[in-house]
Structures are given as structure tokens and as C-alpha cells.
Design brief:
The chain is of the alpha+beta class and about 280 residues long. The protein contains ten helices and eleven strands.
């Protein structure tokens, strides 16, 4: 026969499986898995570990996170039944993790952005989450910069779960999955034409895709001068001829004649002269 203690334990377990979980508690526990409200000194115990102009890649330790969550849930528990009930509670919380990890970031996103940031079709818990800590003046200069995380071994862009400024110069990002490369692009607040240097020189940019290179990538590291007429006006005709020679391009030809060279029109000229957002790339060694 079951003892009174066994019966009580069984009732507690059934309650743990059937009672609704407090949404605020579940939300807090889910967000703690992404290091929200975790003191910064727990992440970087000494400033020398993260000097200025440094990026550090890291991987979240599931065992450490489990221990932290269990510790948070152990408050007020002192009996075996309490610990067993907490175990069932934690299991249900972890079952809701895949969707919960996306919740906080999506709650802050505008509806227009949500259209382009659909949830993954397979929301299984990957168990692998990696991120970065960046300490740089770049963070203060461009707090709204775009950040992408890539697994280049599989050529997969990972979903961003968290991106926050921890101070004026420190940024934290966490991705759902393994990453070995971070791409950071300054905000494209406006498009304007201009040269890349103070002495009026520009890079020649590709107008066709070629192998791993995309339209807009630099053709080479060579800088060419922009010809100027009197009155500080651009000599467009000479500039176009110079660009066409560098790109081995020709004027657009209408009709049935086959275009042997890539076409150079006003659109290609605009591509060459537009001031593009700067991008930095960091890889995990």
C-alpha cells in the first residue's frame, strides 16, 4: 500500500503537471537563459578580459544555465517533495523555451520588421547558443548598427535572440546556434553621393556578380581620382569613361544585338558614386 508521504508526493507531481504556470515567472526564467538580469561581473569578472577595441565570442553552458534556474526556483524549498515538484516545473519551463527565447526581442520589434523576421518553422531547442561581447568606441558611435551572426562552415545565418547595449561602449549579442563570424554594418540612415577620401578618390565597385563576389563589392583596393572641372564640379563624362575601362563595360545597347560587355548606364554610375554603409567582419579563431 502507498504511504501517506507517497500519496502526497504523487498529488504534488500531478499538480505540477496540470496547474497553469505563472506567466511572469516563466517569462523571467526564459529570459534568464539569455543572461537578462545577470550581473555583468558574472560574465566578465575582470576588465582585463575585455579591453577596449576587443570582441569576445562565447558559448552558453547549458549546465551553468540549468544550475542558475534551479537555484532561482529553490527559494523556499526544503523538502524532497519541494525539490521533486521544482524538477517537474523546470521541465515544463524548458519545454516552452524554443518559443520563449524569441519572445522578448519580438515584443520590441515594429510590425513592419516582424514581417521580415518570421519565426523559424522548426522551433526545437538547439541546445547550442553562441554570442559575442564587443567593447569598442564603434558601439557608442553607431548604437543602431546592424549585426549578423554566421556559421560559415555551413553558410547559415543564425537567428538573433538578443542584442543589447550594456554600456556606452559594450554590446552583447546572442544567437540561436553555432556562429564563427560576426558582420557589423553601420546604420544606413541616408543615401548620398560622395568620395571615399578627402582628396576625392573612390573605389571601383563590381556591377556584375562573379564567383563569391556580389554587385557592389570592391573590384580591388585601388582608389581612383574623381575628375573635377572648374567650380568643383564632377567631370561626369571623363569619370564614366574611366569607370568603363576599369570594369571592361560598355554603353547599353538596345535591340537584338548581343551585349558582349556588361552594360554601364546611369544606374551603374549611381552604384559607383553612392556612399555605402561601412561594414566590419570578425571571425572566431
Amino acid at each position: 500500500m502507498k504511504s501517506w508521504m507517497d500519496s502526497k508526493k504523487e498529488c504534488n507531481l500531478q499538480a505540477a503537471d496540470t496547474l497553469p504556470l505563472p506567466d511572469d515567472v516563466v517569462k523571467w526564467l526564459q529570459e534568464s537563459r539569455l543572461l537578462y538580469d545577470v550581473p555583468f561581473s558574472y560574465l566578465v569578472p575582470d576588465e582585463n578580459f575585455l579591453p577596449m577595441e576587443t570582441i569576445r565570442f562565447f558559448q552558453l553552458d547549458e549546465n551553468w544555465l540549468d544550475a542558475m534556474t534551479e537555484g532561482a526556483c529553490s527559494i523556499g524549498g526544503g523538502t524532497t517533495n519541494d525539490w521533486t515538484t521544482n524538477g517537474y516545473f523546470l521541465r515544463r519551463v524548458k519545454q516552452s523555451l524554443p518559443l520563449g527565447l524569441y519572445r522578448r526581442r519580438r515584443e520590441k520589434m515594429h510590425q513592419n520588421h516582424l514581417v521580415h523576421c518570421a519565426l523559424p518553422t522548426d522551433l526545437k531547442d538547439s541546445k547550442v547558443r553562441m554570442g559575442f561581447l564587443l567593447r569598442s568606441e564603434l558601439v557608442e558611435a553607431y548604437p543602431g548598427m546592424k549585426v549578423e551572426g554566421w556559421d560559415r562552415s555551413s553558410n547559415i545565418e543564425r537567428n538573433l535572440l538578443r542584442l543589447n547595449l550594456l554600456s556606452d561602449t559594450v554590446m552583447l549579442g546572442i544567437f540561436d546556434g553555432y556562429i564563427d563570424e560576426i558582420n557589423v554594418t553601420e546604420p544606413s540612415e541616408a543615401l548620398h553621393f560622395g568620395t571615399r577620401t578627402s582628396d576625392r578618390k573612390i573605389y571601383v565597385r563590381r556591377i556584375e556578380e562573379e564567383g563569391p563576389y556580389k554587385i557592389g563589392d570592391k573590384l580591388s583596393e585601388e582608389l581612383i581620382p574623381v575628375p573635377i572641372r572648374d567650380g568643383r564640379m564632377v567631370d561626369v563624362s571623363n569619370l564614366v569613361e574611366t569607370l568603363k575601362k576599369k570594369l571592361h563595360a560598355d554603353d547599353f545597347v538596345c535591340g537584338e544585338e548581343v551585349q558582349q560587355k556588361p552594360a554601364f548606364t546611369s544606374a551603374e554610375l549611381a552604384l559607383e558614386m553612392v556612399e555605402m554603409a561601412a561594414q566590419e567582419r570578425w571571425t572566431k579563431q
